[in-house]
Amino acid sequence: MSSDQPTVLVVEDEPAQREILSYNLEAEGFRVVRAENGEDALVMVSEENPDIIVLDWMMPNVSGIEVCRQIKSRPETRNIPIIMLSARSEEVDKVRGLETGADDYMVKPYSVVELMARVRAQLRRTRPSTVGVQLDYEDISLDPETHRVTRGGDALKLGPTEFRLLSTFMEKPGRVWSRDQLLDRVWGRDIYVDTRTVDVHIGRLRKALCQHGGDDPLRTVRGAGYALG
């Protein structure tokens, strides 16, 4: 899946709850991957690199709290937002969940509509272009709703792949993205593309960004990848 469709990992041991959550998230336009226990969840996080996790607290063997603790303790996954679901309504439990690293906490039974709103709120913070938030970096503006990009007020012509590349860079200016990370984010995990294809599209993006003049804002980091700024 490309960057246009955020991936949500649903971790819930009750099949009916898992299906309800998945159905509603897919209806909202999200790509959904599922795990029925904590062990599977930790594997899925590594394999799928989800944009957000909806995590049940009460699960056998590895609890949601332990899954949350492990995800938040790893540098490569600690920035993935986690919304924890729990039947525990006591304030002490909510505090424990948040202190373990959960970004939000909802008590069962919860409103599905409210949960969808909270998922979008977290994504506005971490993947703004996927929920229609305009991105700005110096004199470059990108509108994910209209697919318009301007630089210094001048409209830029970008192909769809270059647009997704630029969205990825503008969501996290300064971050260095490896070719493999860009392939996963822009082309999707299910498609085989040679890493050299990334270099070709980076070259096209550079050309497009400078079509009306200006310095090249993209940076090549030798042996590591590419960054914006």
UniProtKB/TrEMBL annotation:
What role does this protein play? This protein is a positive regulator for the phosphate regulon. Transcription of this operon is positively regulated by PhoB and PhoR when phosphate is limited.
Q: Which GO terms describe its cellular component?
A: cytosol; protein-DNA complex
Query: Keywords assigned by UniProt?
Result: Activator, Cytoplasm, DNA-binding, Phosphate transport, Phosphoprotein, Transcription, Transcription regulation, Transport, Two-component regulatory system
| Start-end of DNA-binding region | 132-229
Question: Per the database record, which ranges form the OmpR/PhoB-type domain?
Answer: 132-229
**Stored Gene3D superfamilies:** 3.40.50.2300, 6.10.250.690, Winged helix-like DNA-binding domain superfamily/Winged helix DNA-binding domain
Q: InterPro entries annotated for this entry? A: CheY-like_superfamily (IPR011006), OmpR/PhoB-type_DNA-bd (IPR001867), Sig_transdc_resp-reg_C-effctor (IPR016032), Sig_transdc_resp-reg_PhoB (IPR011879), Sig_transdc_resp-reg_receiver (IPR001789), WalR-like (IPR039420), WH-like_DNA-bd_sf (IPR036388)
Q: What is this protein called?
A: Phosphate regulon transcriptional regulatory protein PhoB
**What positions does the domain Response regulatory occupy?**
7-123
Q: Which gene encodes it?
A: phoB
| Xref: NCBIfam families | PhoB
Entry GO MF terms: phosphorelay response regulator activity; transcription cis-regulatory region binding
Gene Ontology biological process terms from the UniProt entry = phosphate ion transport; regulation of DNA-templated transcription
List locations, semicolon-separated. Cytoplasm
